[in-house]
Structures are given as C-alpha cells and as structure tokens.
UniProtKB/TrEMBL annotation:
Residues 13-115 form the Serine-threonine/tyrosine-protein kinase catalytic domain. The keyword Transmembrane does not apply. Keywords: ATP-binding, Kinase, Nucleotide-binding, Transferase. Pfam families: PK_Tyr_Ser-Thr. InterPro entries: CR_Ser/Thr_kinase, Kinase-like_dom_sf, Ser-Thr/Tyr_kinase_cat_dom. This is Serine-threonine/tyrosine-protein kinase catalytic domain-containing protein. It comes from Eucalyptus grandis (Flooded gum). GO terms for molecular function: ATP binding; protein kinase activity.
Length: 193
C-alpha cells in the first residue's frame, strides 16, 4: 500500500482541488478528473511534468495560459499533423477547461459534457479563473511544452509500446458499457478524409 504522501503525488494532478486540498469529495470530482484526461488526450502529454530541482508544470496551467492568449491550438499534439477537425478539438479543449473549474458547482454535469462533445449543445464561453502566473513561469512552461518535440515523440512512442503482456489484436472496440457502440458504417467514418 502506498504511503499518503506518495499517493498524493501520484494522484494530485487528477484529483479535484476540493478533495486534494480539503478532503471534500463532491459529486463533481470525477468531472474534474475527466477534464484533465481530456487535455492529456488532445495534447498527447501527461498532466504533470517534473523538471530539474522541484520545478513542476501542469498541463492544465498551460492550457489556461494558451486560452488567455487565444492560442488553444498550440495545445494539440503535433503528431496529429492536420488529421483532425479543428472545431471538434477546440470544443474538446473548452469542455475540458469547463470540467476543470476550481469551483465544483461551476463544473458541468457529465450529461452536459456528453451533449457538448456530441455537438448537441453549444460549449459555453469560459471565463478566466484569475490564476496569477508570472511571465517567467509562462516562458518556462512554453519551453517545456514546446521543447524538443522529437525527444517527446520518441519518449511517448516508447511508453506507448510498453505493455503488461502481448497485444493480440483481438480485443473488441465496444462493450456493453459503451455509451454508443462503434459502427464503422457511419457517415463520420466515410466523410473523415
């Protein structure tokens, strides 16, 4: 079993602030975690990155900086090239930022998140959270997240290839728990290119 400080370090990037700081578990804590994972998926990076001597950068902070500067597309994983729908990616990032609001009551319910991601409901405009970040910190984050892309690509490829066992290629893409089963005959897949 992990000791409490070690567990906190492992989970702090995904825990809702109200739980991590005060031990209050709200019904919106999972929404916060979903937002963090959504940012990781879009960016292809881990939420928490440690650098030399106690420097720690959070992907969420970088996303908020980019949002404030109107450069959210800089968050997108460069390995995707141009093989994505810009409107959908921006919706995903903005939904993730809504989900990671520091105030639990301002996070949307998961049903609204699903509706926004499906395009059935417009994504509300996110107000600035008033986080104070110095220009020096912003520059350090910029260098970190925009740093040596080749090295990051190599590291991510290596990490993604590591598995607990051999991949058999027989796993199903759907399960009884899926929100919607995957249907390869939909217009989405035909019109994707």
């Amino acid at each position: 079993m992990l000791q409490t400080p070690a567990l906190f370090l492992l989970c702090s990037g995904y825990m809702a602030p109200e739980y991590a700081m005060h031990g209050y578990l709200t019904e919106k804590a999972d929404i916060y975690s979903f937002g963090i994972v959504a940012l990781e998926v879009v960016s292809g990076r881990s939420n928490t990155s440690y650098q030399k001597k106690e420097k720690c950068f959070y992907l969420l902070d970088w996303a908020r900086v980019l949002k404030g500067r109107g450069n959210l597309m800089d968050l997108v994983d460069q390995r995707l090239g141009s093989h994505f729908d810009k409107k959908e990616v921006l919706a995903m990032i903005n939904v993730a930022l809504l989900c990671t609001n520091a105030t639990p009551a301002l996070r949307p319910p998961m049903s609204s998140v699903v509706s926004m991601l499906e395009g059935k409901v417009a994504v509300p405009v996110l107000d600035s959270e008033g986080t104070i970040i110095t220009e020096e910190t912003i520059e350090a984050m910029r260098k970190h997240f925009k740093g040596d892309e080749d090295q990051a690509v190599d590291e991510n490829i290596t990490k993604s290839m590591l598995t607990d066992g051999p991949w058999t290629g027989t796993a199903s893409s759907t399960s009884a728990n899926d929100l919607y089963p995957i249907n390869p005959d939909t217009d989405y897949w035909r019109n994707r290119e």
